[in-house]
C-alpha cells in the first residue's frame, strides 16, 4: 500500500490511523507548495488533486475518512466496528464534516495556513463566523463527551481521529475550545497515543 500525504489537516487523520495500526504502507510525501498534487501523474490517481490518497493493489481511495476505515478493516481493527456501532461512527463522521471540523478547519486555514503561505491576513468576517459555529458545535460535542472516554461506545474508533483532527492546532489556529473541559479531557486522552501526537513519517519518500 502507498499513502500519499502532506503535513496538512486531512492527511493527518489517515497517517495517524496508519501509524496507530502499524499498517504496512509506504508513506509518499506530496509537496503542495511545488504543486505536486497538480501533476498529470497525481491527477491520474486523484482527479480532485488533493491528499490523502491510498493505493492498495488495484484499489485507489480518496478522502481521509474512507482511507481510515479501509486501513482499519484491512487490519481487522475495531477502529472500524463490525457491529451496530458502524452507524454511530458514520453519524459522527458526517456531523464532523458538516459542522465541527468544517468551521474549525476554516480557522485553521485563516489563522495558520494563510499567513504561512503568504496569502495575506485572516479574513475577519470569516473568522468571526467560524468562531461562532465552533462554539455552538463545540457545545454539542462537549455535552456528548460528558462521562465518556471516546465518541462511540467504550473504545477508540476512526470517529475520534476525525472529530479531533483540528485540536492539535487549536492554540496556533485560535480555535475556541478552551471553555469546553470535556473536549480538552478527551483530546488529552488521544494525546497519550504516540501515533496521534506524531502522525507523520520522519523520512519522506517523494512522489514520482
From TrEMBL:
Keyword list (alphabetical) reads:
Transferase
Every copy of the GST N-terminal domain together lies at 1-79
The top EC class, named as a word, is: transferase
Q: What is its EC number?
A: 2.5.1.18
Query: What is an example of a GO molecular function annotated in this UniProt entry?
Result: glutathione transferase activity
Q: Where is the GST C-terminal domain?
A: 82-208
Q: What is this protein called?
A: Glutathione S-transferase
Where does this protein come from, organism-wise?
A: Afipia massiliensis
Classification lineage:
Bacteria, Pseudomonadati, Pseudomonadota, Alphaproteobacteria, Hyphomicrobiales
Amino acid at each position: 500500500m502507498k499513502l500519499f500525504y502532506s503535513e496538512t489537516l486531512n492527511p493527518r487523520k489517515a497517517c495517524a490511523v496508519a501509524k496507530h495500526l502499524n499498517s504496512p504502507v509506504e508513506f509518499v510525501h506530496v509537496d503542495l507548495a511545488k504543486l505536486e498534487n497538480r501533476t498529470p501523474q497525481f491527477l491520474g490517481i486523484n482527479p480532485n488533486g488533493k491528499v490523502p490518497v491510498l493505493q492498495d493493489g488495484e484499489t485507489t481511495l480518496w478522502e481521509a475518512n474512507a482511507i481510515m476505515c479501509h486501513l482499519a478493516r484491512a487490519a481487522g481493527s475495531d477502529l472500524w466496528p463490525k457491529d451496530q456501532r458502524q452507524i454511530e461512527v458514520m453519524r459522527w463522521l458526517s456531523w464532523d464534516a458538516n459542522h465541527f471540523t468544517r468551521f474549525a478547519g476554516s480557522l485553521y486555514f485563516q489563522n495558520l495556513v494563510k499567513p504561512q503561505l503568504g496569502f495575506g491576513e485572516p479574513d475577519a468576517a470569516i473568522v468571526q463566523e467560524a468562531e461562532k459555529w465552533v462554539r455552538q458545535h463545540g457545545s454539542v460535542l462537549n455535552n456528548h463527551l460528558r462521562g465518556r472516554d471516546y465518541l462511540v461506545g467504550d473504545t477508540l474508533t476512526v470517529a475520534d481521529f476525525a472529530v479531533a483532527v483540528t485540536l492539535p492546532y487549536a492554540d496556533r489556529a485560535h480555535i475556541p475550545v478552551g471553555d469546553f473541559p470535556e473536549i480538552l479531557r478527551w483530546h488529552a486522552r488521544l494525546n497519550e497515543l504516540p501515533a496521534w501526537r506524531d502522525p507523520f513519517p520522519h523520512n519522506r519518500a517523494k512522489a514520482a
